[in-house]
Design goal:
CATH superfamily of the largest domain: GAF domain
Distance between the termini: 70 Å
Order of helices and strands: HEHHEEHHEEEHHHHEEEH
Shape: globular
CATH topology of the largest domain: Beta-Lactamase
Structural class: alpha+beta
Largest sheet: 6 strands, antiparallel
Helix content: 40-55%
Number of domains: 2
Number of helices: 10
Length: 261
């Protein structure tokens, strides 16, 4: 009786399949945030659009590697092992070496938390922060993902990618609320043309944020953002507050140019 021979996939097909699996694993990890630090498999499936059986397979992999921890109730959270990875990534980021003293100076001028945000995968991620000493302050952690469809930082980051890629990023919003997606697209284009953006209560209640792009050559390397509690950002002072952020972003750009020499 003849035996059926195994059909071999071409190398490029195997590579594409592997990349897609990696993207999905990263999407699951980036779903966790300070506000949603514990999630069930079903919640992860709903937020990422990944089929539930696949989510369970990826959860098994992440638990085996020690990156995900679970409990008896079927809830999962990122493990403490990621703290070390976050620190290693932070140290490896050359832009942080240049940005840190500028961010500390800006935090000293404003008295506010200052964050550096980059586009990682499909998320706007805080890669570095200088925390405010104020009792009332906005708290961010390195590695914390921010919504990609809300906030001043996200608009600038989305302005840096090709329109076709941006369309993919915003597909979930366009499906939920087409009018909101059209309006956001206009704001993104405007932010890209200006090189800065502001937002009010888009991510956190009671917060106004000012953000400015940081260019490294012809590409956007990151976004510098200061989230201000509304009580410390009256309308008549916002132009001045934004000017400080933009000036600091230019200082980081100059530092990056010098570092390349």
């Amino acid at each position: 009786m003849a035996r059926a021979s195994a059909v071999k996939m071409p190398p490029e097909a195997n590579a594409a399949h592997g990349c897609e699996g990696a993207r999905r694993v990263l999407a699951l990890m980036l779903t966790f945030s300070a506000d949603e630090h514990t999630l069930t498999a079903r919640q992860l499936a709903e937020r990422t659009g990944i089929a539930l059986p696949s989510v369970y397979r990826y959860i098994t992999l992440l638990r085996e590697t020690g990156l995900l921890a679970g409990d008896e109730r079927g809830s999962y959270r990122l493990s403490a092992r990621l703290i070390g990875l976050a620190r290693a990534a932070e140290v490896a980021e050359s832009i942080i070496d240049v940005a840190d003293p500028v961010m500390r100076d800006l935090s000293g001028q404003t008295g506010e938390t200052v964050i550096l945000v980059r586009l990682i995968g499909r998320s706007a991620v805080c890669v570095h922060r200088v925390q405010s000493g104020q009792q009332l302050r906005i708290s961010f952690e390195a590695g914390q993902p921010l919504p990609i469809d809300r906030g001043a930082s996200a608009r600038l980051l989305l302005a840096s990618v090709a329109p076709s890629v941006r369309k993919e990023f915003l597909a979930p919003l366009a499906e939920r609320d087409p009018e909101a997606a059209i309006l956001l697209e206009k704001k993104i284009v405007q932010a890209g043309q200006q090189g800065y953006a502001t937002s009010e209560e888009e991510i956190h209640k009671g917060v106004w944020a000012a953000a400015a792009q940081i260019m490294h050559g012809k590409r956007m390397a990151a976004v510098l953002t200061v989230p201000y509690p509304l009580v410390r950002a009256p309308a008549e002072q916002r132009a001045q507050l934004l000017s400080r952020v933009r000036s600091s972003a230019r200082a980081i750009e100059n530092g990056l140019r010098l570092a390349r020499r």
